[in-house]
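Record passed on here:
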Amino acid sequence: METKLIINHMTLKAFSTLNSQYDICSICRENISDKCIKCSQNNTNCECYSIIGICSHAYHHCCIKDWMKNKCIASQKCPLCSNKWELKKRNNINKQCNNLF
């Protein structure tokens, strides 16, 4: 006798590999593929996604956004290499990050 399995609902997670030099957000020290400390502690349902700068350093969106808010406009630099922070051009991410800072 053959047994059938019926799946009524399934949630799939996808993971992507970022072209980044680091797997850890250098601001909150959490894994770049996980939520940042702020989002984890607030238990929010926000989309805590990662972004990459032209210098190939990756951060959580929330972390780098807060970092830049605390800096004057003239010195908005990457926390790791001190180069001017600019978002690396990626079609799917840039739509979400147009008003990042």
Summary: Helices lie at 37-42, 61-69, 91-94. Confidence is low (pLDDT under 50) at residues 91-101. The chain is about 20% helix and 5% strand.
